[in-house]
Amino acid sequence: MVDEEVVSERIRQIAATLEGRAAELTGELVQLYATDLPQLVNDDERMVSLLSASVYQNIETALQIFRHGIDPAGVEPPAAAVEYARRLAQRGTPVFDLIRAYDLGQAAMLDFGFQECIRLVDDAALLGAMMRRLLRVAYEFITRVVRQLVGIYQDERDRWLLNRSAARAAKVADLLDGNGEPPDVDAAEAVIGYRLRGTHVGMIVWHASEAFVDDALSLLESVAGAVFERVRGQGRPLFVPRDEASAWVWLPLAPGATIRRDHLDAALAEAEAGVRVTVGDPGTGVAGFRDTHQQARRVHALALAAGEHCDRVLTFREVGTVALMTSDLNAARLWVASTLGPLAADDENGGRLRETLRVFLTTGGSYTAAAAELMMHKNSVQYRVRKAQELLPRGLGEDRLDVELALALCRRLGSAVLSPA
């Protein structure tokens, strides 16, 4: 007969050991989801960050249950887990994916626990009792958490569909998909409340803050409206929430009208600091509706990769080439390293040399013009340009275009494509 107190004490020891590895175990589970549930990981960085926080808090909660003998029947889901379930509901991710994630996580954590049991315990009877305890308590904890999160998911999904027109979002998705028969433009315009026959500019607007922002969608809609007023659009903008902190926007332009950078900067100057905007080129008709949106999304991916130091406003006209090159960020990083060599080092000196060389090339190779733009002495520019060229793997004459593109990538994405110093 195995003493239950001995079982509890040994489990407390194992939980304490695993608690010190919580961050490592979180990383392993996120990698597991990347393989088995890639739809949960192949999203924007904010959702992946929230997933990681949810996993980490669930691991901590489970280990606290084992360390302190807490009854799992009285445990509530961690805050990050609740918020992640709500965001999945807002995005229409199937609830099955949420349940499957908890099943995979439970199996993986039990495997980690069993490995520790086998490593520390030689007595077969004690080992069996510990594993049975782990299985029972883990099952009770996960069952309770999943049951509550499924209810939260469903409530949020119902609320989201009620408050944000599902029919409109579905029709927009059909228009963007572009497959099948040509759309009935009259019917589509009636559903989405937006004219499709004219010229449009697509935008992605989002709030970059990790902290909760009260009624962020209203804030984002007001920013879109402020831009629309400045471009003197024709008709009504189309605002389609993506989740509670981001939205897709189309602005209908009057004939001959355009959207300028100063329109965007002025609207953002009046908004909260966390608001970000990416903008596509104007397009006409249903095809233009689709194309300008896809351009804004490409630039949005670039902005997310660049992180918090990215410009608040990015347009496809300004950074389209860079955006097209960053669909595979790892490949872009390798290409930058191959093109720039030691000049791609992520340090202060490398940054100075890269910026000087970039300005020198964009001003037509003029030391005088570069010095004026950089507000430096001409001799200092010459010195830095020479030092930068010495670090390049190949002569500037052979690879000038590649070097200019690589420097543009470094300027926009920073550490995301630079080499460790």
UniProtKB/TrEMBL annotation:
Residues 353-408 form the PucR C-terminal helix-turn-helix domain. Gene3D superfamilies: PucR C-terminal helix-turn-helix domain (1.10.10.2840). Residues 24-168 form the RsbT co-antagonist protein RsbRD N-terminal domain. It holds the Pfam family RsbRD_N. InterPro entries: CdaR-like_regulators (IPR051448), CdaR_GGDEF (IPR041522), PucR_C-HTH_dom (IPR025736), PucR_C-HTH_sf (IPR042070), RsbRD_N_dom (IPR025751). Residues 178-300 form the CdaR GGDEF-like domain. Belongs to the CdaR family. This is PucR C-terminal helix-turn-helix domain-containing protein. It comes from Amycolatopsis mediterranei (strain S699).
